[in-house]
Amino acid sequence: MKQFFHNPFLYSPLSLGAGNTITIHAPATVANMVCGFDVLGFAVNEPYDEMHFRLRDEPGVKIINLDEYNLPTDPEKNVAGAALLAMLEEVDEKTGVEVSICKKIKPGSGVGSSAASSAGAVVGLNHLLNNRFIKEDLVRFAMSGEKLASGVKHADNIAPCIYGGVTLIRSIFPLDIIPLAAPSLYVTIVHPQIEVRTSDARGILKQQVQLKDAIRQWGNIAGLVAGLLQNDHALIGRSLEDVLIEPVRSILIPGFDTIKQLSKEAGALGGGISGSGPSVFMLSKDENTAKQVEAAMHTVYNQLSLEHHTYVTTINQEGVRVLSPE
Amino acid sequence: MKQFFHNPFLYSPLSLGAGNTITIHAPATVANMVCGFDVLGFAVNEPYDEMHFRLRDEPGVKIINLDEYNLPTDPEKNVAGAALLAMLEEVDEKTGVEVSICKKIKPGSGVGSSAASSAGAVVGLNHLLNNRFIKEDLVRFAMSGEKLASGVKHADNIAPCIYGGVTLIRSIFPLDIIPLAAPSLYVTIVHPQIEVRTSDARGILKQQVQLKDAIRQWGNIAGLVAGLLQNDHALIGRSLEDVLIEPVRSILIPGFDTIKQLSKEAGALGGGISGSGPSVFMLSKDENTAKQVEAAMHTVYNQLSLEHHTYVTTINQEGVRVLSPE
User: Fold this and answer.
1) DSSP class of residue A207?
2) Angle between helical axes of B135-150 and B113-128 (0-180°, round to 10)
3) Which of A88, A114, A238, B4 could lock A149 by a disulfide, CB 3.0 to 4.6 Å apart?
4) Domain-by-domain residue ranges, chain B?
């Protein structure tokens, strides 16, 4: 059975029952979006994790890894498992699920790897349960996975992963998620192969900030939301400024200032640290510009002899994608 | 001649030349808009100041008061005068203007009385100069009046007074004003007859704030902008929350918490301190609710035996209104 799940292409309605087995794609996400620390995030079309689900007759969660990351298969120590356990608590005592996970979003890259696991997990199980839970419930369950990953229940990757597009998390307690209709934008992401632990990136932040800096920050987030909703690319670009978090966190990312400068010179509207890093993202109006931004990123990290991966992609508008049973 | 200007109804195209004499209405404005401290503001249809202008052959600014407030007529000590002098510096050395001001917005009430004077002044003169300046220039000139009034160049009353509607001032240096298309909303304002000096209201603010409070604040301003642009009244209401400024400043306003509570019970979406107070504003979806909010405000201040004025009005969408020459 395990062997069977290692090759998802062998799935067949005949062997497993079409209604009980599904595959989902859980997208990477960019949290914070420069001036929207802890409240904004958006989903991208690449990279994404692939996950396969089937209901089991016995209760609990069984996790099978289809990738090379050797993540824990004990559900209580796995972010997808923790999210599924939180969800099953509100289902019944009999239902169980088996999930096979092929992660393509590298853990620790700063583009919502843990969120893709936990959000993908609850969307997949919900589909097998005939979508009995609404999206806000799914965010609530998936945050249990985020808490396992980073120690904090936060939703700025989870929410865009589940809703798609750009999402505002106005409040966590009570949960208040606002999907923002965003224009189609191209996204260039570079992931330098260094480790920045989320807990370290949080630890270096000052807990007190200057009121005048906070005012500048909320002027920018207001401008960014207006730019997105009014389809004003220039305003989006002007508003992608972070006077509070970026100056502190960017010191953990080699070449950050140069990446940003050359990306803007290549035509990017703007960008910054993805989540708590080390990935850096840039937004562009068109694909050609996004590719020139990618070239600029290569130039910087090649000069620094720093191994890195890049993606040129677009904003994902649908969130976790449930594929038809194969 | 002075006597003539004291009665604006005597204006006549025959005696003064229709092209050279105009009347404007400069609306009151509500700055901050609860969670948008220093960056948001909106104009209302009542109250408004009335001002009359004519070009003079001699340079400089002549100010004539048509009201009972005994404001300085020395242009350098009058906010309208300071704004006009800043503007004339960029015109030529020969042009002069005479302005007769009938203030209906009580100075110190917290609904942009000084901004109405300075914004009205520059819009009026600009009209006589065949609108040679764009609105951003007018904001720049009018800020010289605000600097005289409060010691700080700020635009959160000036900008909505000139542009109308709800405006975001994303940045002062460089100036970046974004008009936000707002749904039609009713506004109830109560002005308790106490004095709150802008400088005092600024002085009691802490210059450092908790990062977690700042995050909550920028989640709210993002929600408010989204609510306005997406015409989502419930979201507007939820976002009208200020965890930083209101808790400090509201202690200067008698009965503030009760006003707010009873207004919400009467159906208001939400509201808070107008500018630096002492006026308090509440937003409502319809006129009937706005009047019930007014009744609640009367109840509170009558119980406190506090003299007060109320307005039930709507958001002013056009800003300073230039009337045809009479």
Assistant:
1) S
2) 140
3) A114
4) 2-181+316-323, 186-314
pLDDT tens per residue, range A229-284: 999 999 999 999 999 999 999 999 999 999 999 999 999 999 999 999 999 999 99
Give me Rg for the CA atoms of chain A. Answer: 20
The A residues from 148 to 177 touching B (CB cutoff 8 Å) are: 168-171, 176
To test the contact with chain B by mutation, choose from A32, A34, A172, A218 the residue with the greatest count of B C-beta atoms within 10 A, namely A218
Hey, which CATH number is domain A2-181, 1.20.1530.20, 3.30.230.10, 3.40.50.2000, 3.30.470.30?
3.30.230.10
Residue with tokens 């009209």: B127
Please give, rounded to a whole number of angstroms, the shortest distance from the CA of B38 to a CA of chain A. 7
Phi, psi for B186 (deg, rounded to 5): -90, 145
In a mutational test of the B interface, the residue from A225, A228, A230, A231 whose CB has the highest number of chain B CBs within 10 Å is A225
| CA-wise closest residue to A26 among A110, A111, A144 | A111
Lowest mean pLDDT among A2-16, A41-55, B31-45, B136-150: A2-16
CATH class belonging to B2-181+316-323 = alpha beta
The mean pLDDT of chain A is: 92
pLDDT at B135 over 60: yes
Cβ-Cβ contacts under 8 Å, B248 against chain A: none
Which residue on chain A is closest to B230 by alpha carbon? A229
8 Å CB contact of B168 and A226: yes
Topology of the domain covering A186-314: Alpha-Beta Plaits (3.30.70)
Query: Catalytic annotation on B198?
Result: yes
Residue B305: which residues within 8 A CB-CB, separation 6 or more? none
**Partners of residue A225 in chain B, C-beta under 8 Å:** 222, 225-226, 229
User: What predicted TM-score, i.e. pTM, was given to this entire model?
Assistant: 0.92
Share of chain B above pLDDT 90, in %: 84
Cβ A87 vs Cβ A79: under 8 Å: no
Is pLDDT above 50 for A17?
no
**ipTM greater than cut 0.90:** yes
Using the 8-state DSSP alphabet, how is residue A315 labeled?
A: B
Alpha-carbon gap: B209 to the closest alpha carbon of chain A (Å): 5
Indicate the burial class of A206 (C-beta count within 10 angstroms; 0-12, 13-18, 19 or more). exposed
Cβ-based contacts of A170 with chain B (< 8 Å): 219-220, 222-223, 235, 238-239
Token pair listed for B181: 């298309």
d(CA B230, CA B183): 9
pLDDT for res A14: 35
Q: Tell me which residue of B224, B232, B221, B239 sits closest to B183, measured CA to CA.
A: B232
Half-sphere exposure of A252 (CA within 13 A, CB side): 27
**What distance in Å separates the CA atoms of residue B262 and residue B300, rounded to the nearest whole number?**
9
Q: What whole-number distance in Å separates Cα of residue B224 and Cα of residue B242? A: 11
**Candidates B198, B289, B310, B313; catalytic one:** B198
Q: How far is B109 from chain A (nearest CA, A)?
A: 24
Residue A46 bears catalytic tag: no
Residues in chain B within 8 Å Cβ distance of A38: 215, 219
Candidates B180, B202, B154; CA nearest to B43 is B180
The region, left, alpha or beta by phi > 0 then psi within -120 to 50, assigned to residue A110 is left
Query: Nearest C-alpha of chain A: how many angstroms from B170?
Result: 4
Closest partner CB to A215 (pick from B38, B211, B222): B38
**Could you tell me the two tokens for B36?**
């948008």
CB within 8 A of B302, min separation 6: which ones?
none
Q: Which tokens in the block code for residue A276?
A: 């708590």
